[in-house]
Amino acid sequence: MPTTPLRLDDSDKLQLARMANTLRFLSADMVQRANSGHPGAPMGLADIATILSLYVNLDPSDPSWLNRDRVVFSGGHASALVYSLLHLWGFDVSKEDLSCFRQLDSKTPGHPEYAHTPGVEITTGPLGQGIANAVGMALASKYAKGLLGENLISHNVFCFCGDGDLQEGISYEACSLAGLHRLENLIVIYDSNGISIEGAVQKAFDENITERFSAQGWEVLACDGHDYESINTALVSAINASKPSLIIATTTIGKGALSLEGSHKTHGAPLGKDIIAQAKAALGFDSDAEFIIPKDVALRFLNVKENGALTHHQWLKNLTPETKARIDSLLDPSHIVYPSYQKGQSIATRVSNGEILNAIAAGMKGFLGGSADLAPSNNTELKGEPDFPDGRNMHFGIREHAMGAICNGIANYGVFLPFCATFFVFSDYLTPSVRVASLMKARVMYVFTHDSIGVGEDGATHQPIEQLSHFRAMPNLLVFRPCDGNENVACWQVALQQHTPSAFVLSRQNLEVVSDGADAAAVARGGYVLQESALDSHNPRLVLLASGSEVKLALDSQKLLEQQGIATRVVSVPCFDLLLAQDEAYRQQLFGTGKVLAIEASRALEWYVFAHDVIGMNGFGASGKGEALFERFGFSVENVVSRAKALVVC
Question: Disulfide-capable partner of 561 in 38, 54, 566, 594 (CB 3.0 to 4.6 Å)?
Answer without folding.
Answer: 566
